[in-house]
Amino acid sequence: MVVRERKTETRLAVELCGIPLRTPLIPASGTLTKEALGEVEGVYGAMLPKTTTPAPRAGNPPPRVAETYAGMVNSIGLQNPGVERFLEGLDAFDIGLPLFVSAAGDTLEEFGALCERLGADERISAIELNLSCPNVECGGLTFCAGPASVEEVVAVCRRATGKPIFAKLTFEGVVENARAAESAGADALTIMNTIPALTIDAHRREALVRGGLSGPAIKPVALRAVYDVCGAVEVPVIGSGGVTSGIDVAEFMLAGATAVQIGTASFVRDPKEILSELASYLDKVGLDTADLMGALSS
Amino acid sequence: MVVRERKTETRLAVELCGIPLRTPLIPASGTLTKEALGEVEGVYGAMLPKTTTPAPRAGNPPPRVAETYAGMVNSIGLQNPGVERFLEGLDAFDIGLPLFVSAAGDTLEEFGALCERLGADERISAIELNLSCPNVECGGLTFCAGPASVEEVVAVCRRATGKPIFAKLTFEGVVENARAAESAGADALTIMNTIPALTIDAHRREALVRGGLSGPAIKPVALRAVYDVCGAVEVPVIGSGGVTSGIDVAEFMLAGATAVQIGTASFVRDPKEILSELASYLDKVGLDTADLMGALSS
Amino acid sequence: MKFYGVSVEERKASGRYTVLRYRWPGLVEPGQFVMARAVGWPVTLDPFLARPFSFYDHDGEVASLLFEVRGRGTALLDRAHKIEVSAPLGCGFQLGSSSGKAALLGGGVGIAPLKILGRRLTELGVPHDVFLGFADAPTAGAARDFPGAGMATMDGSLGTPGTVLDAVPNLTEYGAVYACGPNPMLAAVKRTVGPDRLCQLSVEERMGCGNGSCNGCAVPVRSGGYVRSCVEGPVFRAEALAW
Amino acid sequence: MKFYGVSVEERKASGRYTVLRYRWPGLVEPGQFVMARAVGWPVTLDPFLARPFSFYDHDGEVASLLFEVRGRGTALLDRAHKIEVSAPLGCGFQLGSSSGKAALLGGGVGIAPLKILGRRLTELGVPHDVFLGFADAPTAGAARDFPGAGMATMDGSLGTPGTVLDAVPNLTEYGAVYACGPNPMLAAVKRTVGPDRLCQLSVEERMGCGNGSCNGCAVPVRSGGYVRSCVEGPVFRAEALAW
Ligand SMILES: Cc1cc2nc3c(=O)[nH]c(=O)nc-3n(C[C@H](O)[C@H](O)[C@H](O)COP(=O)(O)OP(=O)(O)OC[C@H]3O[C@@H](n4cnc5c(N)ncnc54)[C@H](O)[C@@H]3O)c2cc1C
Ligand SMILES: Cc1cc2nc3c(=O)[nH]c(=O)nc-3n(C[C@H](O)[C@H](O)[C@H](O)COP(=O)(O)OP(=O)(O)OC[C@H]3O[C@@H](n4cnc5c(N)ncnc54)[C@H](O)[C@@H]3O)c2cc1C
Ligand SMILES: Cc1cc2nc3c(=O)[nH]c(=O)nc-3n(C[C@H](O)[C@H](O)[C@H](O)COP(=O)(O)O)c2cc1C
Ligand SMILES: Cc1cc2nc3c(=O)[nH]c(=O)nc-3n(C[C@H](O)[C@H](O)[C@H](O)COP(=O)(O)O)c2cc1C
Ligand code: FES
Ligand code: FES
Questions:
Q1: What is the CATH number of domain D102-240?
Q2: Ligand 6 center from residue B65 Cα (angstroms)
Q3: What pTM, to 2 d.p., does this model score?
Q4: Atom of ligand 6 nearest to the CA of D212
Q5: How far apart are CA A287 and CA A283, in angstroms?
Q6: How many Cβ atoms from other residues are within 10 Å of residue A211's Cβ?
């Protein structure tokens, strides 16, 4: 039995920017709370808490979530206690896995200072720059607005820290933005975030949630974004968007992703099942995760 | 009974660019064949066949459709017999309703000539410009690439015909493109088309369909696009994207749409049911469709 | 989020609501809730999210839920033979501080947590009265499960006409108030009870995950900002809430 | 697309396949198909599209389908009590032109339309032989419904080893060939039969709508471009296909 378990371990392991991950799964930022860590033991290859910002953010007023066909729309508004209190509580996420931290600022300076602060913390293995939250207005700046702004913000962060940097991009103009992030020195790209969306309550005749669509509904859109970006850049890509089953994970890796984030799906099912579906799939096709990457016949 | 039917009629009727529609429903271009017209009697307020192009197009090789969570991805590639044979067969779609025609060209000149040709046909009440098909490369030109190209193509078509012109836009940059189309003289806007997407068959390890996502999955994205565009332009907006139930129709009208297209949903259910759900909803809230438009409390 | 499949052992109507019973060994505190859905595989897309419901009752072995059919989620639960639940979730009512007699106020389906709360208060020997408010007589049928409870109906067809607060003869005689119902009712209870007595409210906010992960179920608090009603709540001390 | 809810009257295993029977009065031509799904409300999101299946049999009152469980759609059909169908769809086999004896070739679940086709040919007094090809002996269990049929299995465990074509002793004795099965098998049949005899193939292409609306089920034709297999097909004359 020990032998078999060992085998599963190697079969699932991947390496991301030189960081070994036991499994290719990572919780998507903002979708796993420290209170729920006990439920996900053995599932993930790294930890990734909710985005932190320089100052505390109260977030948006309710309603913040609404259900849609095969998905949900959220408008949380980056509620978080600010980077200092975040770092004080960070040990809760230190469960023996590489620890990635998601960061966002309102200005270039804030991004730079935040990366410097996070880069100085030894517990943190890499920083994911959230350049794509649809639910906050970034002081007039939308960092994912186009390649020029993406390049600028990634360059600032690159100068601020020697830690690996992942740029998390939205799917609008994703290929150009991906090239810009790469050329500015991003070590990996997280593709993608939620898609701007709106829900309306027809009976009350009121807008319900204006925010980002996530969940199974967006999977084929994210899969295309990942595939296209993998064809355009050299750096590793982390897939995010609608991953709901182990087969979905395999599809993202076949499209070229090195690791895959699980977000909304973890609200409706046990992510352990996703991992074991992936393991069964690998058994069936006789491959390891490392072999899957980009292995589409065409 | 006659009285009651009359009442339902008025209750459902809307006016689009001066054209009276018995119901606010229109089949989305490319989703209703003439062979199926018998099934949809009484449902629609206007007819809208599949996009026509100057020359015949064979379309893309199969597989052309694949299922996704709450939706499908298609890559038909605008298969059509070309405008001349299209017009020869157009009488099949003339079932006593206003007849709209969807048109696409590879160049500005083609768009202009096509609009002139279609504009000269008395059977046609309005022309929908398909500026947003994700499945064809338009001779290097992507007409929805940005406001400048949208403005250019709409202006050319405007000069070519006096018939009402609807510009069908993709959701990327939809608000700027909508303003551009309006200022170039579009009489209405169809918001939106499918979203670029990809499906992969993990078992065969091959890409399946690279095309556009449609169906319930995209509804909240289309709803937001319609809402945002309605806030930015004066011309009427026709909603398209994921409409699956009568409540969905109501939501699009509450968001500001004057009429609503039914596409993919008509593959999986009888659109008559959608109309009767809308009628029940109107009974329940005590409103007519005309009152619904933009009637969100906020 | 881990869901457990359980078989529905009994389903009965209670007024216009439904009561479901299923085997659920373990500890449950009054005011805690479950995320539940009709069974689907591997997930249900239709509806996509599980729905929150208070524990209606629990005897250590068997749990029950009381719910109103509102939309798709509850319609499916209403006819499901197998359901999936994640539980027990959230922080329930604090029963410790004895301060005389307690008033339990429920409005509509908000009566749900009062059943298990009453049972537990009885076990602890805390004297309490139950008051229930409903829209009309048919809905008020659910009061049969609360023998001796005071009652009000909005349309006046049964009990005191008005809200549940109108059914309480003398609110000042109670040292503690526990309430559950629509948020406007809870706000009224808070106003009426005032700051001097222990008042706990079980709030209802839209939920995404139910386990604290999504920050979706935000409730504004006096100390500033929002807290999650699924982890820090759903039961809050009235004075903690910013409404 | 209008779907009709029908109750499954009988479900039985046939080899590794399932046969479903339901009441379906009206006319059905051999080779026509249905779009079917387990019942859902108002649509099923999971899976989203209905699935195409050939009519296996039809006696004027009761229809049956024979299918293999491949994925989610067929898994749900396999346990559904109520299903929704849209039918009859497409153009079936042309039975008119009598040109001697007919050979009916089926591969895997492609055997489905041969049952109703054989029945109709018998009614018309057209002499015919049936040949079936399967992967292995367990799947070949479905041949029991075709008494007297020739048989081949790929693994050689039953009948002639090889494909269905290997089971036909002398193809030249037949004036007409009707075939249904995976597209590569159909291409092989077309090659083997050659251009001189009437050869009709029921093709299998992914479908969106099933009623001609989506242009999804494209099949390349000799005359150039594509036609829709759900309207112009699913049965085509072999020489019309560009493969
Ligand atoms: C902690 C908690 C405990 C609850 N306990 C109970 C209970 O014991 N019994 C009971 O019947 N109900 C309870 N509810 C409410 C219950 O969750 C909703 O009635 C249910 O989610 C409706 O689901 P649906 O699919 O049937 O309706 P939907 O189609 O989702 O919605 C129908 C309508 O209900 C409203 N609604 C939907 N979800 C919620 C929500 N989470 N909160 C408030 N309104 C909502 C919306 O306005 C919507 O228009 C509780 C809610 C919370 C947060
Ligand atoms: C005109 C026609 C008649 C058919 N008749 C029968 C029949 O009588 N009995 C029967 O068992 N099957 C028949 N099929 C095939 C049947 O439609 C598929 O097996 C079914 O759609 C699979 O659905 P699923 O959800 O179980 O599998 P899915 O999860 O959708 O797919 C499982 C695998 O099956 C393949 N597949 C899916 N859909 C199709 C399709 N439309 N065509 C080809 N391959 C597909 C894919 O490669 C996929 O990997 C027919 C197909 C057509 C087009
Ligand atoms: C409730 C919720 C909160 C989120 N918060 C964040 C966040 O703080 N930072 C971030 O980068 N992405 C955030 N996201 C986006 C997710 O990380 C993920 O990229 C997106 O939801 C798509 O993946 P999914 O479909 O698997 O959820 C959030 C998503 C949800 C649903
Ligand atoms: C199979 C298919 C074919 C389509 N063909 C066209 C087309 O020819 N021209 C066009 O403008 N839109 C076309 N569309 C897009 C639809 O008109 C519609 O805008 C889109 O599918 C979103 O709406 P829905 O979710 O209701 O389907 C097509 C969509 C589908 C699914
Ligand atoms: S419902 Fe997700 S945090 Fe409370
Ligand atoms: S399946 Fe839609 S046209 Fe054939």
A1: 3.40.50.80
A2: 9
A3: 0.96
A4: 3
A5: 7
A6: 28
Q: Which residues of B are catalytic?
A: 133
Domain range list for chain C? 4-85, 102-240
Which of 22-81 (A) contact C at CB < 8 A?
A: 30-33, 35-36, 39, 50, 56, 58-72, 74, 76, 79
User: If you take atom 7 of ligand 4, which residue's CA is the nearest one?
Assistant: B30
Query: Which residues does B223 contact at the CB level (< 8 Å), separation at least 6?
Result: A197, A198, A199, A200, B239, B241, B251, B252, B255
Percentage of residues in chain C having pLDDT higher than 90: 91
Q: Where are the alpha helices (DSSP H) in chain C?
A: 72-79, 112-123, 137-140, 164-167, 183-193
What is the CATH T-level fold of the domain C4-85, as seen in this structure?
A: Elongation Factor Tu (Ef-tu); domain 3 (2.40.30)
Nearest-ligand number for the alpha carbon of A143:
3
Candidate from A56, A61, A65 with C-beta closest to C208: A65
Provide φ and ψ at D151, rounded to 5°: -145, 145
Q: A230 catalytic, yes or no?
A: no
What is the spatial distance between Cα B37 and Cα A292, in angstroms, rounded to a whole number?
46
| CA separation for the pair A123, A92 (Å, rounded) | 11
Phi and psi dihedrals of A215, rounded to 5? 100, 180
Amino acid at A283: D
Sheet of strand A65-68, all strands in order from the earlier edge strand to the far edge: A65-68, A71-74, A206-214, A195-201
Tokens encoding D20:
């479903």
Q: Return d(Cα B163, Cα B98) in angstroms, integer.
A: 12
What is the nearest CA distance from C230 to chain D, expressed in angstroms?
A: 28
State yes or no: cis peptide before A56, omega within 30 of 0: no
Using the mean position of ligand 5's atoms as its centre, give its distance from the Cα of residue D236 in Å: 56
Is residue A30 within 8 Å of A51, Cβ to Cβ? yes
Q: With 70 as the cut, is the pLDDT of residue D184 above it?
A: yes
pLDDT tens sequence across C170-190? 999 999 999 999 999 999 999
Q: Which of D46, D69, D81 is best to mutate for the C interface (most C CBs within 10 A)?
A: D46
Query: Which tokens in the block code for residue A271?
Result: 């992510």
Q: Under a CB-based contact definition with an 8 Å cutoff, are residues A168 and A129 in contact?
A: yes
Cα separation, D187 vs D242, whole angstroms: 10
In DSSP terms, D241 is beta-bridged to D221
Residues forming beta bridges with residue C176, ordered by sequence position: C102, C198
- Tens of pLDDT along chain C (243 residues) come to 999 999 999 999 999 999 999 999 999 999 999 999 998 655 568 789 999 999 999 999 999 999 999 998 999 999 999 999 999 999 999 997 667 899 999 999 999 999 999 999 999 999 999 999 999 999 999 999 999 999 999 999 999 999 999 999 999 999 999 999 999 999 999 999 998 889 999 999 999 999 999 999 999 999 999 999 999 999 999 999 998
- Residue C138 is encoded by which pair of tokens? 């048919």
- Give A2-60+78-196+214-292's CATH code, choosing from 3.40.190.290, 3.40.50.720, 3.40.50.300, 3.20.20.70: 3.20.20.70
Catalytic residue among A115, A133, A144, A230: A133
What are the pLDDT digits (tens) for B128-160?
999 986 655 544 446 677 899 999 999 999 999
